[in-house]
Amino acid sequence: MKRMKSVWALLLCLTMVLSLAACGQSAENTAAPEISGVADQSVPVGTEFDAMAGVTATDAEDGDLTAQIVVTSLPELTFSNGKATPDAPGSYELTYTVTDKGGLEAKAYATLTVTRQTGEATVLQQMDFATPESQDSHGWTAHIAEGVDATGEQKEGAFVFTIADPGQGDGDIQLVKSGVTLKAADYRVKVWAKADTPTYAHLLARNENAEEWETFGGAYNLPIGTEIAPLELNFTSPGEGSAELMLNLGKITPNPDNPDDTTPANVTVTIDKIEFYEITGNETQTPVYTADFADAAAAALTAGDGASGTATVADGAATFQIDAYPSEGGVWSVKADLALPGVTVEAGEKYYYTMTVTAASDQSGECLVESAAQADAARANFNSLTLKAGEETVVSNVFTAESAVEDPVIRLQVGAPADGVTANTLTVTSLEFGKVEGDLETAKTIDAFGASIAASADPNLLWTTYNGTDEDNDLGVGTIWTQDGSLFYRIDQGGNVDWHNKLIFGHGENPLTLPADNYFTIEITGKASQPVSCGFFLNPMGGWDPRISESIDFTTEEQTFTFKTTDTLIMDMDFEMLFQFGSADTAALGSVTIEISDITIYQESVV
After folding, report:
1. How many percent of the chain have pLDDT more than 70?
2. Which of 320, 321, 397, 388 is nearest to 355 (CA)?
3. Contact 73/92 with Cβ under 8 angstroms?
4. Where are the alpha helices (DSSP H) in 23-113?
5. Residue 10: predicted pLDDT
6. Angstrom distance (rounded) from CA 552 to CA 561
7. Mapping DSSP to helix (H, G, I), strand (E, B) and coil, where does residue 340 land?
8. Do the Cβ atoms of 494 and 386 come closer than 8 Å?
9. Which of 45, 174, 395, 441 is the most exposed place for a label (fewest CB within 10 A)?
C-alpha cells in the first residue's frame, strides 16, 4: 500500500511539471530580473539627488520590482526613498540591487559626480575663426605662361590650380620654389596632390648654380588621380648649392603615338602639402634576434572586451586566429605578441624590425615595441599597421627607443575589425629584430598650405592638424582653413587609427590655458559633408590624462555638442583640445570636410 501511494505521488508531481511546461512556465525560474535606466549623473554639492529617477526593474515571473531596488554608494550616502543629499564633492560609485521572489539577484552600476558649488557661468573664450589677412605659401609660387587660361592660388587650405587650358607645354603651368639650399646629401620631394579629373605632372629639381639648364633629377609623366597621393622625386646633390623645385602641370602627352592620352582641359589640381627630405650619412643594421617560430612561446594572443582568439606556431610561422572581435573597446582589445627572447632595449638607442605579415581580411591597428608585462608603461616605439586582404605585407620600422624595456615584444594591437569582418587570421614570417649603428640622419620639412592658421599671433586662430603621413605612416592626409566665420578641416585621406587625423587647438608655445578653481563647459557647433565620428579630448600638455574624453558624431545637419569637466584644477594648466577622426570607417569615406562654426568655453568659478 505504501508503495502504491509513493507511485501515485510521483505521478502527481510529474503531472504538475508537465502542466507548468504546457502553460509556458518553468518549474524553476532561472531568469534574473532586469534593471533599466541606470546612468551616470552629476550634481553640485548640497543638492538633493534622486538616484531612482528613470530607473525601473522588471522580472519575467514577478513583474514590476522597481519598489524593491536598493541603492548603495561608495563612499557611503544616506538614501531615503532613493534620494540623497551629498555634502562632499567627489566621485561616488552607485550600486543598484534587486532580488526576485526566487532569490535571483540583479545589479547595475553608475557613477555620481558631486561638484563644488560655483557661481554663474561666464565665457572664458569664444573662437571667432576669422580668416588671416595672409597665408604662408612657404616660398611656393604659381607661374602661368602668358595667354594660358589657368590660375594657381592658395585657398581652402591648399594650393589649387584651376586649369581651363593646359597650354602647349608642361612648363606653361608651374608651382615653383626657388633658392632651396643643398649640401652633399640625398633628397626626396613628395607632393601630395589630387585632381577632379586624372592628369599628369613632371617634378623637377633644377640646378640653380649651373651656367646652363641642368637638373639634379626629374620624375616625369607622374599620374595625378582623383584620390590624394604623393608625387615623388629623389635626387642627389654632390655638394653645396641650391635648387629650384618645379611641379609642371601644363600640357603633357606621355606617349606621342597616343595623343588622346594627355593633360585634359578643365581640370582642378589640389595640393595639400609638400614634404622635403634631406638624407645624410650611413647606417648598418645588425640582427640580434631572428625568429624560427619553432617554440610555442614565440607567439601569444590575449583578447578582452568580448573578443576571442588563439596563437599557434608551426612550419616557421606564427598564426594569430581572431575568432571574434570585441563587442566594445578598440584596437587594444586584441593583442598579438611576438616574443623577442634574449633582447633588452635601451632608451635612446636605435633599433629596427622587419617581418612579413599576411591577413585573410583587411586589418588595421598598431605595431608596438613595448614591455610584455607593463605595456605602455614601458614602450619603446609606436607605429601604425595596415594590412590588405590576402596580400603579403613587409612591416618594418627603424626607431630610437623612447624607453628602456627589459622584456620587449612586438605587439600587434588589432582589436578593431574592418567593415563587415567578424573573424580574421594573421600569419607572420621572416621576423628579424636588431640594432642600427651609424650616422644616417633624415631631416624632413613639411610645407602644409593650411598650417598658416597655427602660425597666427591671434590666440583664436591657433589651430593646427596632425596627420599620419606627416610622420611617414601609411595613411592620413588633411588640411585646415577658415572661411565665413567657420573653421574647416578637410580629410583627404582617412587614417586607420584615431591619431592619423587630428585637429588640434593648443600646441607648442601656444597652449589652451585654463585657470584654477573652475569647472569648464565646452560647446561645439558643427557639421560635416558626410557623417563622420571622432573622439574629443581635453588633455593636459605633456602627458595623457584627459579631463574630457567623449565621442562626437558629426552629421550633415548642424548640431551643438556640450561637454563638461567634473574636477577643478589646483593651479592654472596648459591643455590641448583634440578632435581625433582616424578610423577604418573614416579611411573608407574618401574625402570628408568638417565645418565647425562655433566653439565656446565657459568657466564656473568655485564659490
Report:
1. 93
2. 397
3. yes
4. none
5. 41
6. 8
7. coil
8. no
9. 441
